[in-house]
Amino acid sequence: MRALFVGRFQPFHYGHLEAIKNILKECDEVIIVVGSSQFKNTIENPFSAMERIEMIKRTLNTHHIKQFRIIKVKDFNDDNKWVETVIKKSQKFDVVYSNNTCVREILKNRGYKIRKSKSRFKINGTKIRRMMINNKNWQRFVPKEVIEVIKKVDGVKRVKKCE
Q1: How is residue 136 annotated by DSSP?
Q2: 163 vs 129: CA distance, rounded Å
């Protein structure tokens, strides 16, 4: 069975990692959709799609997770166009994992099985970015590979500048 896991991953954090591990307990492969792929250098989307993909790949490789594929999908402000793009780029999937109400509803209306992403980590990208702005210990919520990418691109400075 092939799963679809949709997120913006701004940045990729331990909640995402644990969700992917849990998905792979139920499915053979996960297609990771990096959403809002055209955005970067904004407070909601400070990291480019390629930076986010690097965060994800480096982390999953370190954790010896190989049953994944990553696709980029732009926001269209058109649900039908977005779904068609996801379907075309992913080729085939059986179940969708997302905690985003809008994503869940759009794909449920297309007949896909929907499941909530499971993670014991109660963290999200907005909180992590807010911690960066406020000089709090955001690093404890992200894998070391993500910290390395954020340092490499001077990501904390970028997040602060986007505020």
Answers
A1: -
A2: 10
Q: From the CB of residue 105, how many other CB atoms can be counted at a distance below 10 Å?
A: 13
**CA dist., res. 17 & res. 118, Å (int):** 10
* Direct distance between the N- and C-terminal alpha carbons of the chain, in angstroms, rounded to an integer: 41
Task: Provide the 3-class DSSP secondary structure of residue 144.
Answer: helix
Q: What is the pLDDT of residue 117?
A: 83
The answer, yes or no, to whether the previous bond of 143 is cis (omega within 30 of 0) is no
Q: Are 7 and 98 in contact (CB under 8 A)?
A: yes
Instruction: Residue 132: name the closest of 11, 6, 3, 5 by CA.
Output: 11
Report the distance separating Cα 62 and Cα 20, nearest Å.
Answer: 14
In CATH, the number for domain 2-162 is 3.40.50.620
Structure confidence at residue 116 (pLDDT): 84
Q: What is the pLDDT of residues 19-74, one digit of tens each?
A: 999 999 999 999 999 999 999 999 999 999 999 999 999 999 999 999 999 999 99
Burial class (CB in 10 A: 0-12, 13-18, 19+), 138: buried
Domain boundaries, the chain: 2-162
